[in-house]
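Example complex used in Figure S2.
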Amino acid sequence: MERQTIAALGRALRAREVSSRELASAALEHIARLDGALNSFITVTADQALTAADAADRRLARGEGGPLTGIPFAWKDIFCTRGVRTTCGSKMLANFVAPYDAAAVERLHAAGIVSIGKTNMDEFAMGSSNETSWFGPVHNPWDLERSPGGSSGGSAAAVAAGLISAASGTDTGGSIRQPAALVGITGFKPSYGRVSRYGMIAFASSLDQAGVLTLTAEDAALLIEAMAGFDDRDSTSANLPVPAYATDIGKSLAGRRIGVPPEFFEPGLDGECGARVREALAVLESLGAQVVEVSLPHLSLSVPTYYIVAPAEASSNLARFDGVRFGHRAEGATSLEDLYKKSRQEGFGPEVRRRLMTGTYVLSAGYFDAYYLQAQKARELIAADFRAAFAKVDVIAGPTAPTPAFRLGEKTDDPVQMYLNDIYTIAVNLAGLPGISVPCGFARGLPVGLQLIGPAFGESAVLNVAHQYQLATDWHSKAPPEAPLVAAVAAKGRSR
Amino acid sequence: MSWEPVIGLEIHAQLATRSKIFSGAATAYGAPPNTQACLVDLGYPGVLPVLNAEAVRLAVRFGLAIGGTVAPRSIFARKNYFYPDLPKGYQISQYELPVVKGGSVEILLDDGSRKTVRLTRAHLEEDAGKSLHESFQGLSGIDLNRAGTPLLEIVSEPDMRSAKEAAAYMRRVHQLVRWIGICDGNMQEGSFRCDANVSVRRAGTDKLGTRTEIKNLNSFRFLERAILHEIDRQIEVIEDGGRIVQETRLYDPDRDETRSMRSKEEANDYRYFPDPDLLPLEIDAATLDAVRATLPELPDRRAARFVTLGIPAADAAQLTLERDTADYFEAVLAAAPAVEPRVAANWVNGDLAAALNDAGLGITASRVGAAALAALLLRVADNTISGKIAKDVFAAMWAGEGGADDIIAARGLRQITDSGALEAAIDKVIAASPNQLAEYRAGKDKLFGYFVGQVMKATGGKANPQQLNELLRRKLG
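Predicted assembly (973 residues):
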């Protein structure tokens, strides 16, 4: 199956070479035919998609509509979508129908996007492998025995396998960039505050940021330009003009300074992954960029800092799931306290419970100073490292993940090993910066991602370098073979 | 050995905004359950709080009015606990950095002296909803209309030494928040409520005793009674050799007692931390200046100004209990410059206040407006009617019979100042009272009043009292 960028689809739609209904129908057909092997969708909204596609076709027929009109798109199931089940990958919300659209959903719908469905994810975005989902793990289309990464694993697998050209994700500690790297696609997380968090079910409020998983940086630029912008319903939304990303990406890299921190290449990094990243840096140099060393001395603090800050905020954010007003409510509770305990025990999976307990602990009287306050100080040190580095360079480059995709089940018994998978991505969230992962080759037949990081609100620089790299390379157009997916679906059918 | 009570209050004043502190839902009281709760108030997944700028302005108003420091930067924090009427599982409040620090108010003590009560802080927070335990057959109902209503929690230092002082302080703050228009002060509806921290210590010692916190004090009377009761209870416990346990106690007005709600050990660990959904609240000098410019003359200053007009301090204090009263009073003065301010004050505090009280009306709804009262008082000042007749005219005005001049004319109440007519009336009375005349002339001075009364009766009360006295004295010799 041929994967197509939304830039190309948009051109074809506006030239009336293809209709939105045809694209939506094709996406629905791909999902029906192949998703049995991937489990990348939790909910497919076929009727709504076709209705929206027809509306888009009418606008296109009138010569109206922009670059996104009529493009099929999928939403990570953490974005509230009016009238559509929004599960957050949890039993707690397995039957929750959101009464409103998230700001990002509103904006892309206004831009003419056609929503196809809701993608699988780690429960409440807590996970790096998509194995914590109540709806089962997602499989990596490059090797179905392996994880696509997480937490936006469903969006990543669906785009990599060509079920859809683009999907949304959220990135709290790497949840867009790491799965993008593990399935060989582009994953872009803008600066904290660039896309409104309104309607995105909160995991860790000071870190959560919406973004996209796409085939190219150009597609990411097109989508984020439409998704981004100030929203007065989110007090942390940045009241800044949104640059013309899709135009900015065309600039030459001549004279661009790219910083490489040695801390990104320490022994935890898989040798082949490191080699691919160095090759990518050589490509950027060949495009006129200058590669210089910068230091992020506090990088090693980022994982422990994150695993205090994020659970602390989550322990409070997820308190609203109490079985009283919405979501899972336990049967047979004998008292109010019993109702809380049973509903939450039953509704949340083990990883979510682990983080809620961690978060409750670090905020408790007597521990708050030692954990939460220390973590805030460490967070500031990490952010200061980046600020110092960006005084010297335009973009920082390094690996996205320390290894290629790991086997499903390989790390589920060892949370710390799982957490270390985000060692290169987490610091970016702690500092609120924009980051992208682009495919830069393969290690043992599995995709490897190059991570590019920009200064706060410097999305243009990141997208520009990524796009120029993709113009010079073709790693982003390497698609996983379809045959194993077809075979897996057939095998499942037989065993049923 | 005598005991000294030490009391500090935490007052929750509901800020008079139209919408909630973090959502656009209405704050009006008394709507059917859950009709004024939007997705933010319901704590739905994905929704976010947005601070109501008006609530901030009202908090700043309070900070300026008490001479406190308005923090240039304050922080909203989450107070985490589970309860069904707390939809998010946390209350957004301010913890380490409140919007207002310090400040003070003065209270008037029984002996006429003044005492300064210092304020620790005032902070913004959201109210919770209500649990309804009746009429659900073993279940509890939740009404989230109140969830998210803006509150200003006003915390005093432990500066009060008696239940009376505490009640005076609560009244003072109540007066102030209404005066500056930040709270309607309605205690029945819970717009103004109070918790009291009470401890006792041996008189003459400095160390504070263990305190208890009494909740649910929604009237001045309950506050005073609950504190009195709690002081007695604590003294009794200590004198019996016991110890006071730090705990929260609930006042039961029906039984007039406090009872234990939860001890310190049972108290929640609220796990306060800064709310990552809200930016630090920053208030710049320009905002302070803008709010300051809209601040009315405060009650103390206004009362002091009234005293300079010759009004006794107690009367000035009464006139400034409510801003509307003071405004009314000044409107009377403005419309009737010839009237003595002291006389106008007596009318406003006396007949008008009584009539309003009987009718259950606020002064802005008075049936006799400031201009109408001024017109009446002018007729007293220019001797058209006597002060006594004026009371009757006022009653007629209150009853809706028209303005002062109309009533005076219609009822023929104009004073008799024509000395000829008055003399004739006096002569008639004297002629009809030979015995009394003889007794008076024999030295029974008290009978002078008899003659005044008789003439007044004969003239329908319309005789000018001063003129009557003069003429009568002359005639009686």
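Chain A has one domain: 6-299+379-495. The longest strand of chain A covers residues 435-443.
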